[in-house]
Amino acid sequence: MASSLFRRLLLPGLLFLAAAGAARAEGPHLLGRFGDWAAYAAGQGQNRLCYAVSQPRRTFNSPRGRGEAYFTVTDRPALHSFDVISLAPGYPFQTGSVPELDVDGDLYDLYVQDGTAWSRNDKAIVQSMLSGESAIMHGRPPGGGDAADTYPLDGFARAHAALDAACGQ
CATH number of the domain that 90 lies in? Predict the structure, then answer.
């Protein structure tokens, strides 16, 4: 079961590669599994991409027909882009809603672009996550009601260190 979960986690890496224009680069390879997180690297040279990814361990008020949910932290050295936070909830957000991320009581407003929640304060969130126990993304699917996904942070610090080693911040 765990291996099929991580095979499914390769999908976000392939999507990121396509978005980064690195379709001809080597595919993502596993840097390691660290608790609830996995770290991957793909591409070479200017097309290098590294990311840590996790799926929620618990969900609350999950909308019917929901797809896969992912929490991703991405590094793209060629773009001088490090620790970019994104959360794909597997459902569309209600128009005008503002998702929120709670990392052990530290609250961060997110914004929505193309169905994904993004952070305005990536560095602060990563710092909270490095010493935190859990991150909870609160979102509002269409039709109302609040949904929440809990991502344990067990292993995040080690996954983040693997990103730094592979993509050098």
Answer: 2.60.40.1880
